[in-house]
Amino acid sequence: MKKYFSHLRPLERRLVVGVAVVVIVVLNWWFIWPEFSDWGQYQRRLDAAEHSLKKYKAAIALIPDLQKQLSQYESEGEFVAPEDQGVDLLRTVQQQALQSSVALQNTTKPNTHTNDVFFIEQTENITVLAEEKNLVDFLYKLGSGPSMIRVRDLTLQPDQPHQRLAADIRLMASYQKNQTAAAKTPTVKAK
Known about the structure:
Blueprint: H1 2-6, H2 10-32, H3 36-61, H4 63-75, H5 85-99, E1 103-107, E2 111-113, E3 119-130, H6 132-144, E4 149-158, E5 165-176, H7 179-183
Antiparallel strand pairs: 1-3, 2-3, 3-5, 4-5
């Protein structure tokens, strides 16, 4: 190539260099310049990836604290065997009804729901007859005790002589699942 270029006259050399420059400019205009808009997209994707990486690293840094909280929550409360949970719920409701002077009119058989990872939920419908103050006291003490019972639905109406309130209440109690089965999950041993 050098030999061929050295045999050209100065005007021909200028013409070859000029044609080469034009070809390079046209190729840049055709292939490279349209791709410059992609640079902004790549920069935005890079920034988004770095932001996600920072969030993931922050979440990973929280794992030891979350594991401590999880073990603390798992150890709280009392464990009631699954076969005794329905009886425990009914016994707790009856005891609180006696303490709060609430007449327990009707109860239904508890239903069990096990969709949660840590808890088994027992749902029971009860019908009570009580004065306003006693009913409020009954509901408050059910929710504030260690029993983890809460009111799901409540329907109030006055009784026939309009002296007391008749209430249809759906109670939901949460009981811990047996943690020994969860502790037996297989682990991978490092070599």
